[in-house]
Design a protein that fits this description.
By secondary structure, the protein is an alpha/beta fold. The chain has a single domain, classed as SPOUT methyltransferase, trefoil knot domain (Alpha/beta knot). Helices cover 32% and strands 22% of the residues. It has six helices and seven strands; from the N terminus they run αβαβαβαβββαβα. It has helices at residues 17-22, 38-50, 68-74, 89-98, 139-142, 162-179, and strands at residues 26-33, 53-59, 82-86, 101-106, 113-114, 125-131, 147-150. A seven-stranded parallel beta sheet has the order 3-2-1-6-4-7-5, with helices on both faces. Strand 1, helix 2 and strand 2 (53-59) form a beta-alpha-beta unit. It is globular, with a radius of gyration of 16 Å. It starts with 16 loop residues before the first helix and ends with a helix. The mean pLDDT is 96.
Length: 181
């Protein structure tokens, strides 16, 4: 019979904060466009840490660390993942483009590409833009993006929580860089 005893934190072989900071990151930047919930922001930090992504751009009304509500879901990832705040998401997108990032909005739009159909090039740096919990990614930001990706959904709801969406998309992209899928 296979042993499925839960691992203790000390048995997981997690890297230290210092090792994380010095490690090679996956060339993906997460852009949060006016995300209002600090719990969602913290959750995105934690997931970005889990997949060792390059950075997060916190834009507009998106709160920044340090803050107890961010920390509650980030659990310290706000101290490991690099982040920058921009007053305007358009400025973040423009700067990322100047640094060679392909800008991808995660949004339901005409002619969006389903997540599983998007061709990921591991020689490319990506900026993944996630929007406000109610309004999504601003249209003026969508207009500046190179492409738009949508997560297929099969139930009665046509949206997912932004941190859930971010987790699904970050994992999908990260596995190509990690496993060459």
């Amino acid at each position: 019979m296979t042993d499925h005893t839960k691992l203790k934190v000390t048995e997981m072989g997690r890297m230290s904060v210092e090792d994380f900071r010095n490690s090679i990151k996956i060339p993906i930047t997460v852009v949060l466009d006016n995300v209002r919930s600090m719990y969602n922001v913290g959750s995105v930090f934690r997931t970005a840490d889990a997949f060792r992504l390059e950075q997060i751009c916190l834009c507009g009304i998106t709160s920044t660390p340090p803050h107890p509500e961010i920390h509650k879901t980030a659990l310290g990832a706000e101290d490991t993942v690099s982040w920058t705040h921009y007053d305007n998401t358009l400025d973040a997108v423009s700067e990322l483009r100047r640094h060679g990032f392909m800008i991808i909005a995660i949004e339901q739009v005409k002619n969006s590409i389903m997540l599983q159909d998007f061709n990921i090039n591991t020689n490319q740096k990506y900026a993944l833009v996630f929007g406000n919990e109610v309004k999504g990614v601003q249209q003026e930001v969508v207009d500046l993006c190179d492409d738009c990706i949508e997560i297929p959904q099969f139930g009665t709801k046509h949206s997912l929580n932004v941190s859930v969406t971010a987790g699904i998309v970050m994992h999908h992209f990260a596995r190509y860089y990690i496993y060459g899928m």
